[in-house]
Amino acid sequence: MEKFFASCPRGLEALLAEDLVAAGVSDLQPIPGGVHFTAEWPCCYAANLHSRIATRILWRIAHGRYAKEDDIYTLALAAPWPTLFSAGQTIRVDVTAIKSPLKSLEFITLRIKDAICDRFRADAGKRPSVDTREPEVRVHGFITADECTLYIDTSGAPLYQRGLRQKTVDAPLKENVAAGILRLSGWQPGTPLLDPMCGSGTFLLEAAQTALNIAPGAGRDFGFQRLKNFRLDVWKDLLDSAMDAEKPAGNAQIYGSDIAPVAVRAALANLDRAGLLPAVTLCTGDVLEIEAPANPGPNPGIMIANPPYGERLSELDELATLYPLLGSALKRNFAGWNCYLLTADLRLPKLMRLTPTKKTPLYNGAIECRLFEFKMVAGSNRR
User: In angstroms, rounded to a whole number, what is the distance separating the alpha carbons of residues 166 and 159?
Assistant: First the structure.
C-alpha cells in the first residue's frame, strides 16, 4: 500500500472523496483542499483516469520534521529517487508552504533539487536535468510550520486539462470546477441542461462526457506512466474497460448559447474536436431573451451559468443593471427549472430580487465564489 494526496478546488472535497471511493479507495481522509488516501497502484491509475474533480494525485515519498533548510535537504537526500525514475529524465520541483518560518521558497526548492541530483550522482554517477516547462517527472514539496512532505506527481499536467478545450474566451472556468458544479446541481444524464452563457463550452464539454460515459482522462497521458514501477498491463486493462463503457454520441438534451458569436464558435470547435458535438445543441442568444429549450418532464430542468463577476467599478455598475433583468428573465422563461449561478459578486441574489435555496462556497482558482441555487416557480420567487 502507498500513501497519496489528491488535491482539488476548495469546496469540492466531498465529491473528490466520492470519486476516490469509486476508484476502489477505502482508506481516505478529506482535508481542506484535498484528500489523503492509502491505496494500491491500480486505484491511483483509476483515480487519475476517472476523477472529474481531482487536480493532481501526488505519491508521498518522504516526510519529516525540520528546523532549517539543511534538514529539508537531508530529508530529500535520503529518499530513494534513483529507484523511482531514471537519471535520463527531466525534473521540475515545486514547493508550497503554510506558516513556514523559512524565508525563501525559491531557496528551499533549489535545496530539494540539489538533494535529488546529489542522490542520483552518488547512486548512478549521473543526474537528471531540469525542465520547468514540460518535465517528465514533477516533484512537489509541501511545508508546514515544522514538517516537510515530498511527493512525486502521478498526474503530470493538472487533471482538469482533459485535452479537449483548444479554443478559449475570457476567464474560462476550470474543468474540474465545472464538473463539481454539475454534480452539486444534482444533474443526471437525460435531464435537460442549459448553459445560456456558455463561453468556450466548459460546462457543455463536461456534461457531454458524463452523458456518454467518457472517462475524463481517456485522451491524455499521465506522470505515473514515466515511473519505473509503471505496470502497462494494469493500465491497459483499465483503459480498455473505460473505452468499452463509452456510449455512442447522440442527442443528450444538453443545450448551450451565448450572446457572443465568437464564444459559440469556440464552443462548437471544442465540442467538434472532442467528438461530442452530436450530444449538444448550440445557438447564439441573449440570456435575457432565451427560452427554456425543452419540457423538463418529471424532473426539473437544470440551468447552469457562470456570469461575469466584474472587477472594475464600471463593470460592477453594468452588472447592477443586468441582474434585475436576469432575475425577471428566469422567472418569465424558466418556471419549473432549477437554476445555478456561480459568481464572486455576492450582491447577485439581492439585485436579482430572488432568494437562493442554497449557497455553496467554491473557489474558481484563487477567486472565492458562491454557487447560488434558485428553484424557479411561476411568478415571484422571493419569500
Answer: 15
What would the grid cell of residue 240 be?
A: 480498455
Domain residue ranges in the chain:
2-153, 175-212+247-375
Contact 38, 206 (CB under 8 A): no
Report pLDDT for 15: 98
Residue owning grid cell 463577476? 309
Tell me the β-bridge partners of 3. Answer: 38
Q: Which of 243, 188, 239 is nearest to 211 (CA)?
A: 188
CATH of 2-153, one of 1.20.120.340, 3.40.250.10, 3.30.2130.30, 3.90.180.10: 3.30.2130.30
In which band, very low, low, confident or very high, does the pLDDT at 320 lie, cut at 50, 70 and 90?
confident
Q: Which residues lie closer than 8 Å to 312 by C-beta, 6 or more apart? A: none
CA dihedral 316, 318, 321, 323 (to 10 degrees): -60
| Angle subtended at Cα 69 by Cα 9 and Cα 130, rounded to the nearest 5 degrees | 65
pLDDT over 70 at 12, yes or no: yes
CA distance 178 to 184: 10
Please choose, from the candidates 62, 48, 54, the residue with its C-alpha nearest in 3D space to the C-alpha of residue 141.
Answer: 62
Element spanning 303, H or E: strand 302-305
Architecture of domain 175-212+247-375: 3-Layer(aba) Sandwich (3.40)
Q: Average per-residue pLDDT in the chain?
A: 93
Give the integer Cα–Cα distance in Å for 136 and 133.
Answer: 10
